[in-house]
Inverse folding.
């Protein structure tokens, strides 16, 4: 999608601090981190939100979780704990219309989040 900030990040048109990339996903550090460890994992294929998952594209979610598992081990937060967040829609707090998963760790994360 031409006007999607995350699609532009994937294409290298907007700089990011890349953490991981393969043929299906791109992971990068959040520019406004809310925890010592805060990164996003996004599918390379433009999927607007979790509401747009279907039989053709839903396998990317399991791949995203596989990548998250790898990265939290590498970043040293797998044992202490971390949070995975997917905001969906305006009321859910989604500000970029490209499905993405925030991963936060490295500190005690309170509940409810706000």
């Amino acid at each position: 999608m031409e006007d999607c900030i995350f699609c532009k990040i994937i294409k290298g048109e907007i700089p990011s601090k890349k953490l991981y990339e393969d043929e299906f996903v791109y992971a990068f550090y959040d520019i406004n981190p809310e925890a010592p460890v805060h990164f996003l994992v996004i599918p390379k294929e433009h999927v607007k939100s979790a509401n747009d998952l279907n039989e053709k594209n839903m396998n990317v979610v399991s791949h995203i979780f596989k990548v998250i598992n790898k990265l939290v081990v590498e970043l040293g937060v797998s044992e202490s704990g971390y949070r995975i967040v997917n905001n969906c829609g305006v009321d859910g707090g989604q500000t970029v219309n490209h499905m993405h998963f925030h991963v936060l760790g490295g500190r005690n994360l309170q509940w409810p989040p706000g």
